[in-house]
Amino acid sequence: MEIICTGVFGRMRRSYGYSRCSTSSQDWAIQLDALARAGVDDRDVYREKASGVKRDRTELRRVLDLLRPDDRLYVYALDRLARSQLHLLQIVEEIEKKGAKLISLRENIDTSSALGKFFTGILGSLSAMERELIMERTKAGVALARERGVKFGRTPKLTPSLIRQVLLAHDDPATTVPETCRILGISRSSYYSALRAGRLQAKDLVIEAA
Predict the structure, then answer these.
(1) DSSP element (H, E) containing 46
(2) Chain Cα centroid distance, residue 92
(3) What whole-number distance in Å separates Cα of residue 162 and Cα of residue 137?
């Protein structure tokens, strides 16, 4: 670890690592080896065993909460850190607000460098575009369903289309539940019923893949 001065006393600049793996132990070994080669102490690596669709990541939350100004968070690859462009942008913005930096080894991205800042700007533009596309697809799906005579009431049928639209909206940190319910014409209870159904389907897919 490197020491930086903050006034009279020095402060240790910390380097943390984050790795995530669903089933392959070999993939995990590759990540941990890369982090070790980058100089991250194994005791400072936070390991997450989770699927890509799981929203709650306790180890990621834990390491993000530890970050202080000038700290570094190392990951093997960006797809090990976030589940979507929107999610990645949210994480990068949180790290930047703390005054810390993100370093992705496979892509050779360091958000403290000029190239890293350029990447963050591009990511923001792409994420905004992705959010607009999600909402456009959601609205288009509702319009098509209404043209076909589908009635959106208090207890709509949990069709694959509705479940997919709810999952897409839920995966967007900038989209609120009330906004999604208004666009889809459903109640909050129907929203969460569709969300639970989608998560169960995703869990079954992960189990089958294992």
Answers:
(1) strand 45-49
(2) 10
(3) 11
Q: Backbone phi, then psi, for 62, in 5-degree steps?
A: -65, -45
- The tokens describing 28, both together, are 């995990």
22 in active site: yes
The overall pTM is greater than 0.85: no
- Closest by CA to 18, choosing from 53, 60, 58, 79, is 60
Biggest CA–CA distance in the chain, Å, is 72
Q: One of 15, 22, 25, 113 is an active-site residue; which one?
A: 22
CA distance 113 to 122: 14
Q: Domains of the chain by range and CATH? A: 2-112 (3.40.50.1390), 129-209 (no CATH)
pLDDT, one tens digit per residue, over 6-49 is 444 556 889 999 998 866 667 888 999 999 999 999 999 999 98
